[in-house]
Specification:
Blueprint: E1 3-12, H1 17-34, E2 37-43, E3 46-54, H2 55-67, E4 71-81, E5 93-96, H3 104-108, H4 111-114, H5 117-129
Parallel strand pairs: 2-5
Antiparallel strand pairs: 1-3, 1-4, 2-3
């Protein structure tokens, strides 16, 4: 199996706890079925997601995301072959956007789409080393 990692950013449409819970429930169910793992960083102004698994399953999942009206302005930031999974135990880890990430102004000015693939992968590498918490979501 060729392991692939895909990272994309989008702007949430109608972001609230209910929408996020729906996305996470659906992601975890489908990802478990399709052998995918990953993490979703979420805030009122950005979704930043890393998916990892078989290329065919990644491509099919990304196609579903592109059609999902809960996402606006979807931008694929990285699509790379990987040697190992960053989130092997997570069908979909959920994390709030961190203070060390981009500010709302930076996101509004295109920080996600202007960042290098190495930079956005570095965000997920850092999160993968941190213990998982139950995120306390703040709707911004």
């Amino acid at each position: 199996m060729n392991l692939v990692q895909l990272i994309y950013a989008s702007r949430p449409f109608g972001f609230d706890h209910s929408a996020l819970d729906s996305i996470l429930t659906q992601s975890r169910r489908c990802n478990t079925r399709d052998g995918l793992t990953g993490a979703l960083i979420c805030r009122g102004d950005i979704y930043l997601q890393l998916l990892e698994g078989n290329a065919d399953a990644i491509d099919a999942t990304y196609a579903r995301i592109v059609r999902d009206d809960r996402h606006l302005e979807i931008n694929r930031l990285s699509y790379e072959v990987a040697t190992e999974r960053l989130f092997p135990a997570w069908a979909m880890r959920s994390d709030p956007a961190r203070s060390w990430m981009w500010s709302q102004d930076e996101v509004a000015n295109g920080a996600a789409t202007q960042a290098s693939p190495e930079h956005v992968l570095g965000i997920f590498r850092r999160i993968a080393t941190e213990p998982a918490e139950q995120p306390q979501l703040t709707i911004i």
